[in-house]
Predict the structure.
Amino acid sequence: MRVNHTGEICAQGLYNGQAVFASDQAIYEALVKAAEEELDHLAWCRDRLEDLGTSPSILDPIWYAASLCLGAG
């Protein structure tokens, strides 16, 4: 479940990184909407981690930063 949660963190980074450099308003809005839709998955994974008595990966900030850079690139 921790891997699933990290995947959702990465999805946020990718969408946000792409949105920052979107050259078209419609593309920007689509990326922002996609990121918002992924928040439900992120919240579900976080809740499930709590149900299982575990915590998110301590590496999540690094994974987010790397995904943000990949999305921006």
Remarks:
- The chain has one domain: 2-72.
- The chain has a mean pLDDT of 96.
